[in-house]
Amino acid sequence: MWQYEKKLQYPVKIANPNPTLAKVIISQLGGPDGELGASMRYLNQRYSAPCREVQAILSDIGTEELAHMEMISAILYQLTRDLSVKEIKEAGFDAYFVDHTTGIYPQAASGVPFTAAYFQSKGDPITDLHEDLAAEQKARTTYDNLLRLIDDPDVRDPIKFLREREIVHYQRFGEGLAMVQEMLDSKNFYAFNPSFDK
Amino acid sequence: MSDGKMKLLKKIQAESFAVVEANLYLDTHPTCKDGLEYFRRHKELCEKLKKEYEEKYGPLTAAASESTKKWEWVTEPFPWELDANKGGNN
User: Fold this and answer.
1) What is the model's pLDDT at position B79?
2) What is the mean pLDDT of each run of 10 residues along chain B (90 residues)?
3) Of B61, B74, B77, which is closest to A53 when you measure between CB atoms?
4) What is d(CA A3, CA A140) in angstroms, rounded to the nearest whole number?
5) Predicted pLDDT at A45
6) ipTM above 0.90, yes or no
7) What is the mean pLDDT of residues A64-68?
8) What CA–CA distance (Å, rounded) separates B4 from B57?
9) DSSP string for A83-98
10) A47 vs B contacts (CB less than 8 Å)
11) How far is CA A180 from CA A53, A184, B89, in A?
């Protein structure tokens, strides 16, 4: 089971609200390569992981992704505080505002709501770990793109932290994949599915 | 899973459920003296039982892996395994 700690993994302290930035950063909450999808991907995949090490890495990274969702939400919350209707209109934040006011809702920058179709749980650890490696790289590219769009150092700082975590997770999933391959037939990794063909 | 381990785990599950229930109640009744006392009593018991369990059978949280020889987090089964839920005569 889970226990909540009343602290962010890394501090978020944004002096100046800026709804224009919130409109793009929201993709890392509920977009195709966002933190919600990442967490759900790993926490659902872990049941068919074939060894404790991979069960542990999926549980622990899946849990850390929940903390990243919270950091992205804190960034969105601080970027959209104390807004006037004039500021909302000028930033083009009105399309989001009409449906959610300044509440936090998981959607992509395009406005598409979060969907479980963003991730897979295939029940085959080779397949799942390859998806996980790709997912971390896709999230890293998204953070790189966000850093191209953001000048405010208060916003860049936590985004840079999150970008670095994608790289560490990629490394750990690579080690998990090597561990699974070690359990398999080295002449044909696909001869059987260790999570099904016991 | 051994009977002793399962029995202790069931006690922890009961005590930590009491703590969760008191937690929710206190969120909306933060000055209730009876509630605060109930929370404290069950939290103390729960912590004592968890300490005993972790000393005997291994960590309940990754951070409680204390061995200097092996990362104990990966030596015991995860809780969705049938083996992690058997024993102790219910």
Assistant:
1) 95
2) 92 98 98 98 98 95 92 94 79
3) B74
4) 28
5) 98
6) yes
7) 98
8) 10
9) --HHHHHHTT-HHHHH
10) 80
11) 9, 7, 36
pLDDT in tens, A109-148: 999 999 999 999 999 999 999 999 999 999 999 999 999 9
Angle at CA A129, nearest 5°, toward A123 and A131?
A: 90
Q: Do A59 and B75 touch (CB under 8 A)?
A: no
pLDDT reported for residue B90:
52
> CA A181 to CA A135: how far, in whole Å?
20
Tokens matching residue B84:
């992690």
CB A33 within 8 A of CB A135: yes
Put simply, the answer to whether B75 touches A52 (Cβ < 8 Å) is yes
Cα Dmax for chain A: 65
What Cα–Cα distance (Å) separates residue A188 from each residue in A191, A192, A195, B72?
Answer: 5, 9, 16, 32
Distance between CA atoms of B43 and B89, rounded to whole angstroms?
A: 26
